Amino acid sequence: MKVIYEDNHIIIVAKESGEIVQGDKTGDTPLSETVKAYLKEKYQKPGEVFLGVVHRLDRPVSGLVVFARTSKALTRLNRMFAEGQVHKTYWAIVPNENSSLFTLHSSLLTHWLVRNEKQNKSYAYDREVPHSKKAQLSYRVIGRGDRYQLLEVQLMTGRHHQIRCQLSKVGMPIRGDLKYGAPRSNPDGSISLLSRRVEFIHPVSKLPIVVEAPLPADPLWQALAPKGSDR
Questions:
Q1: What secondary structure does DSSP assign to 180-226, as a single string?
Q2: What confidence score (pLDDT) does residue 25 get?
């Protein structure tokens, strides 16, 4: 965990792949508890530390996670996320092959997603089907290599595994994402999807907040990223 931004009302950290944001049936220590411990030690707080979880990232995904440090910020951030006032930008490494779209510099994808709870997986369809929800994202190519390309992805809706599912549907499974069709896993168990940037108006101060996550240590990220992005 790396703290990217912190004030009296919010804290934004860079999650590593493999960390869970909130406790689950695995019993593994969640990122929320790690952040609480950090705040308790830094500010020498007695008793329980307040920390509100306002959104999550899939376990194999890395990048920015926003937490609320006060109940006021939690209420307002929950509303902002629900109303689409928090803008998140993702970076994804996908193959340079098996895609009819990879020659395009940018594109808008629209599908209808059906979530399978038992499989913890979503399925994308080209038309509306029973129990489906409309999913839209846009992407643009920002880096290319011999085997892989780097996409910058903007979400217009917030569906379960949306980026993973939609990119796989058009023949661009995210590198390392076995669940959605990648041919092999990454050595560290991650998938090459990064919550790169978060932008919003601070829920209390009303000042603009724009923060970026550092790139993962994998050299492929460094090779594909635009020059000057490796901070």
A1: GT-SS--TTS--SEEEEEEEEE-TTT--EEEEEPPPPS-HHHHHHSP
A2: 76
